[in-house]
Amino acid sequence: MPRRHIAAIGIELATDDVVELSFTEKQSLLDFDIVVIRPSIDAFISWHNTYNGKPCLDDDLSFQLKECCAHWRREIRSLVEAGKTVIVFLCELQEVYVATGTHSYSGAGRNRQTTRYVELLTNYRSIPTSIQALPSTGKGVKLAAKGVEAISGYWAEFKDSSSYKVILAAGAQTLQAALLTRVGDKAVGLIQRSKSSAGALVLLPDIEFCPANFVRVRANEETWTPAARQFAQRFLASIANMDKALRADGDITPTPSWAAASEYALSTEHEMRSELLLAERAVERAVKRKEEKEDELRKIGMFRGLLFEKGKPLEVAIVEALRVIGFTAAPFVNAESEFDVVFSCAEGRLIGEVEGKDSKAVNIDKLRQLAMNVHEDLQQETVETPAKAVLFGNPFRLDPVKGRAEPFTDKCISAAAASSTALVFTPDLFFAVQNLIGNPDSAYARSCRLAMLSAVGRVKFPMSNADVMTIDAVRPVRTSDKVRTASDP
């Protein structure tokens, strides 16, 4: 028997004879002959937010989880229809609430409220079957009376290591139940064969793939024990034999070319092929729209880089944020000079220098470079007056914004005052952009621009549209001005 190419999803085995994949990967399964999967969604579950006593995922995790489930459902179906074997180990039922993408709004201005709609999703959404999994646990399992020859060898080998975590209902009776509870004859394992190929989807009770005696820890390093390696070899041999038996039972003769001639066509085939073509076109349009929305999502999500990025990614996020506020903004490079960002509007022209720090406040180092940039810029023939200097800082960038210390050092603040430089804490800029994207308002955008043009020291952006500064001309912000940043409590 030729060697079978095997993939394991969500399962670790002490062998190099399988390709291990995580549930969050997006790899095609068509390179494999046998796939074993344990559809656990532990990587997504967090109890930080709950609804009706169950975890409730935010929009990003909801999107990722639904995308992963759809991917594996599609890949498993394609592999079975291609004549291959997929074995699902029925782990515990996991239920989470995910965002539907639908929202409703009530109120206006600062009293505006958003209602987010969610739906219940289980880890078994990733399996292409209509069977319902119901939570139940036990070890009392028996083989069904018939049609179980393909899995009988496996069950004899691993029944003592197996236990059921769910029972199968809602359609299980129409399929080939392979394993039943000893009392009540409830289905806890079954075989679902393809109608067009020798492929099969096999659902089996869960196994403890990594008991305590399978791992040894030495010098803070985990290694597999001989028992783990022996188990892996027995397991692979058993599922290879299962695959061979399933193929022998389910061999289907490929349609000869002569049998596809029009004289053998059935009356409804042409109409069904037309409907299939229309469905495929609809899928293509849906995939294209999905890709476009993914691009839009990535672009809008780029603004969150203002909270935690540094270097070029932070510079890109700042340029895009300034454009949202109403500036014309871009990096500047020529033979003599290179500036992080040059931006302008009807109210004035500015030059910015960008600094991100992992665990320190922004100091005076960049102010010297910024002053040189302003002088170099003024030397250009097309520039008549010095540009306003702006230092963008993202210190303590990996810490939550609300817990960060003062973003700029005392020396940096005093030097900025002496040079009339504006200091922008990039999370403050993020909250201004967040407000504008949610509530477009030209007056608010103008007040943000004027806040940067008039600031000496840290820029104080208006908190919301209701707090727009009424400024008729550019002027310094006095210490008595009651203007709050979006990050202020």
Layout of SSEs?
Blueprint: E1 6-9, E2 18-21, E3 34-37, E4 50-51, E5 54-55, H1 59-81, E6 85-90, E7 95-106, E8 113-122, E9 132-138, E10 141-143, H2 149-158, E11 162-169, E12 176-181, E13 187-193, E14 200-207, E15 215-218, E16 221-224, H3 226-250, H4 269-301, H5 305-308, H6 311-325, E17 328-333, E18 338-345, E19 348-356, H7 365-378, E20 388-394, H8 410-419, E21 422-425, H9 426-438, H10 442-454, E22 457-458
Parallel strand pairs: 1-2, 1-3, 3-6, 6-14, 19-20, 20-21, 21-22
Antiparallel strand pairs: 4-5, 7-8, 9-11, 10-12, 11-14, 12-13, 13-14, 15-16, 17-18, 18-19
Helix pairs in contact: 2-3, 6-9
Structure description:
The chain has helices at residues 59-81, 149-158, 226-250, 269-301, 305-308, 311-325, 365-378, 410-419, 426-438, 442-454, and strands spanning 6-9, 18-21, 34-37, 50-51, 54-55, 85-90, 95-106, 113-122, 132-138, 141-143, 162-169, 176-181, 187-193, 200-207, 215-218, 221-224, 328-333, 338-345, 348-356, 388-394, 422-425, 457-458. It is an alpha/beta fold and 489 residues long. The protein folds into 2 domains: 6-252, no CATH class; 303-467, Trna Endonuclease, Chain: A, domain 1. β20, α8 and β21 form a beta-alpha-beta unit. α2 packs antiparallel against α3. The protein is elongated and about 90 Å long.
In a nutshell, what does this entry contain?
The chain is α/β, with parallel strands linked by helices. It contains 10 helices and 22 strands.
**Number of DSSP E strands:** 22
| Total count of domains | 2
- Shape, principal axes of CA atoms: elongated
Parts with pLDDT < 50 across at least 5 consecutive residues: 469-489
What percent of residues adopt helix (DSSP H or I)?
A: 25-40%
**Biggest sheet architecture:** 10 strands, mixed
Classify the secondary structure makeup into a structural class. alpha/beta
- Terminal-residue CA separation: 69 Å
Overall pLDDT level: 87
**How much is the radius of gyration in Å?**
31 Å
How many H/I helices? 10
Q: Hey, roughly how much beta strand do the residues contain? A: 25-35%
Oligomer: single chain
